[in-house]
Design a protein that fits this description.
Helices cover 58% and strands 9% of the residues. It has 509 residues and is α+β, with helices and mostly antiparallel strands. α4 packs antiparallel against α8.
């Protein structure tokens, strides 16, 4: 049994420790974190997009996070390339690593809630003149703990900032993935459009070659002029040169796709496919753009900008907490003996409990500078958030307008192609009959080729704009994917839930 004269101090120490713990818990419960609580900035959002146009209600399956948006183009090759890019693209890998870094920063901030505990052991060789000069070895072993209670919420604000930063980084990862996917889709679709142009020039040069043979025969029998042969030859060589230039464009697009999928260009090849213009045009998807207010939840860059506002707001609280005193609690215990033999004897026991309160009285304006810096950083993040929202709305409006105009332009261009092809056929018939010069034939053929090339290029612009509109509307991403809170509550403009989903018309409608 422990003697009573030793047991009483131990009981008193335990009682004092419990009372101190209870008092501290009550103090912490009554303390609120300093600094402003986060309120999401409000921004005026229109109830509908300006570019309403001749849209129609969506019939295909809506693009969402469970339905990869690029599958709307119904191209298995594109699906395979997307899978490779999501797996191997280095920009996505970089964003993923930055997200893990942000999560580690948040975990480091959360560690401030807990005490620091350590152990120590040592041996000291010393000369002492107490009770006579003697030399000895003094071993020691012990443990210690220290803890700074979060009285003013500095740690809580740091954790709040860390969590917001991690969520923003997750949004950045989603934005990086969406950007890579959009670039890959646009490059791939433009490559297929380039294949159509290459096929167009192959057919055209073959027709021009037959026309050259016709003029050469006409010249041989004295019906045509030598200038007709020169015109036909010049036209053929010009078309051949333009066809060769398209091969350079295709190679560059193929190289870009290789890099996006994480491969060196030398190890990647994408063969041409026999896809007609009508087949490629039929793959234009109907795009559910939704309402402007939904853009706040469907674009990862907007969600990331909003999370950075929350981060900056929490940092204001961290800066404000520096104005208040800090309390440090410490405890240690162990053994400190005159020799190894007596190290763990009762007289060798040592322990200590302590509390220290510290307050900075003068720092030359350092804390005020830090506070002003945090407030200014918050104002910067608010402005960036609002600008990101406005830019997102502009991108949607731009591509809605472009698709509307392109749809009308495509209809007119189709009529121009048909008219120029008829003029080309008639000019050839008249030349064979001797009622027209070959210059009229060349003019009609050049106009026909130009109109056909323009029609293919318009299709390419439609495809590129459709990809841009999908990504501008968020690409099916949703803020819940990164555990963010819904953003629609920050919208101040009324939103009609009965408004139809507006979509660009399908080709030919």
């Amino acid at each position: 049994m422990i003697p009573s004269d030793r047991r009483s101090p131990q009981r008193a120490a335990r009682l004092a420790s419990r009372l101190a713990g209870s008092a501290l818990a009550a103090l912490l419960a009554s303390c609120a974190a300093v600094g402003p609580d986060y309120v999401r900035p409000t921004i005026d959002i229109p109830a509908a997009y300006k570019e309403s146009g001749p849209w129609k209600t969506a019939e295909p399956q809506a693009i969402d996070s469970r339905h990869p948006w690029w599958q709307a183009y119904r191209d298995s090759t594109l699906d395979g390339l997307m899978a490779q890019a999501n797996q191997a693209n280095q920009n996505i890998a970089q964003a993923e690593a930055q997200y893990r870094q942000a999560r580690a920063i948040a975990d480091a901030a959360r560690a401030g809630f807990w005490p620091t505990v350590g152990v120590n052991a040592g041996v000291t060789r010393a000369l002492s003149n107490t009770n006579g000069i003697k030399e000895g070895t003094y071993p020691s072993i012990g443990a210690g703990a220290s803890w700074e209670p979060d009285l003013w919420g500095s740690v809580r604000r740091s954790v709040e900032a860390g969590n917001a930063g991690a969520q923003a980084s997750a949004d950045d990862l989603a934005a990086a993935r969406l950007s890579i996917q959009a670039a890959l889709a646009q490059d791939y679709l433009q490559l297929r459009v380039t294949d159509l142009l290459i096929d167009l020039y192959a057919v055209t040069t073959e027709a021009y070659s037959r026309a050259l043979q016709l003029t050469q025969r006409q010249y041989a029998v004295g019906v045509a002029l030598r200038s007709d042969v020169a015109l036909a030859e010049s036209q053929l060589k010009t078309a051949q040169a333009q066809g060769v230039d398209l091969q350079a464009q295709r190679s560059q697009l193929e190289h870009a796709i290789a890099i996006l999928t994480g491969k060196p260009p030398a190890a990647f090849a994408l063969p041409a496919t026999a896809v007609s213009m009508d087949q490629l045009g039929a793959r234009l998807p109907a795009i559910p753009t939704g309402l402007p207010s939904e853009l706040l939840e469907r674009r990862p860059d907007i969600a990331g900008a909003e999370r950075r506002v929350a981060l900056a707001n929490a940092n204001i609280g961290v800066a404000k907490a520096a104005y208040f005193p800090s309390l440090m609690l410490s405890a240690s215990g162990g053994y400190n003996g005159a020799s190894f033999a007596t190290l763990f004897d009762t007289p060798s026991r040592v322990w200590s409990l302590g509390a220290a309160l510290a307050q900075t009285l003068f720092d030359g304006g350092l804390r005020k500078a830090h506070s002003d810096q945090a407030i200014a950083a918050y104002d910067v993040s608010v402005a960036q958030y609002k600008q990101t929202v406005l830019s997102g709305l502009q991108q949607v409006e731009d591509n809605l307008a472009l698709l509307r105009v392109l749809d009308h332009e495509v209809g007119l261009q189709d009529q121009a192609v048909k008219a120029s092809q008829l003029a080309e056929r008639l000019a050839l018939v008249q030349y064979r009959a001797g009622t027209a010069t070959y210059l009229a034939v060349v003019t009609a053929q050049t106009l026909s080729l130009t109109n056909q090339r323009t029609a293919v290029q318009l299709l390419g612009r439609q495809l590129a704009s459709s990809v841009a509109l999908i990504t501008a509307a968020g690409g099916g991403w949703d803020s819940a994917a990164t555990n963010g809170t819904p953003l629609a509550s920050a919208v101040t403009a009324p939103v009609s839930l009965q408004a139809p989903i507006l979509l660009p018309p399908s080709p030919g409608s």
